[in-house]
């Protein structure tokens, strides 16, 4: 497992199409714990943990985190919807709660990295 405080490569910017979402397991836990959504040149990163039920993983299948309009993150468990930019739940059982952001960097070479500071030990 990577040490806390280290940057871990997730993917290249070019690997994430505009409007797409993708899950990652940077802590090598065996399931995706982080999700990215690309909107134009901006990458939004959130923990894959729904605030409704103690951090339930949200994708309905691998990398499927968005609604049909691709303008909200959706939790497959009970249908909560979250603003992609703020992480705030805008519809569903955890209205007003929010996703937890992750710290990302995009290098000049186009690599998207995550800072593992604050990752829980597993
Ligand atoms: S666990 Fe996500 S909406 Fe219920």
From TrEMBL:
The entry's keywords: 2Fe-2S, Iron, Iron-sulfur, Metal-binding
Gene3D superfamilies registered for this protein in UniProt: Rieske [2Fe-2S] iron-sulphur domain
Pfam families: Rieske
Top-level taxon in the UniProt lineage: Bacteria
InterPro entries attached to this UniProt entry: Rieske_2Fe-2S (IPR017941), Rieske_2Fe-2S_sf (IPR036922)
Keyword NAD recorded: no
Rieske domain mapped to chain residues: 8-94
UniProt xrefs under CDD domains: Rieske
UniProt protein name: Rieske (2Fe-2S) protein
């Amino acid at each position: 497992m990577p040490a806390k405080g280290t940057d871990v490569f997730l993917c290249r910017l070019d690997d994430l199409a505009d409007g797409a979402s993708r899950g990652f397991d940077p802590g090598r836990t065996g399931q995706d714990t982080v999700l990215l959504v690309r909107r134009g040149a901006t990458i939004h990163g959130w923990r894959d943990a729904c605030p409704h039920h103690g951090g339930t993983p949200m994708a309905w299948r691998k990398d499927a985190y968005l609604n049909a309009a691709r303008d909200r993150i959706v939790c497959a468990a009970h249908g909560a919807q979250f603003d992609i930019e703020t992480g705030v739940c805008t519809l569903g059982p955890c209205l007003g709660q929010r996703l937890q952001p992750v710290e990302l960097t995009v290098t000049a070479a186009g690599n998207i990295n995550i800072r593992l500071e604050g990752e829980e030990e597993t």
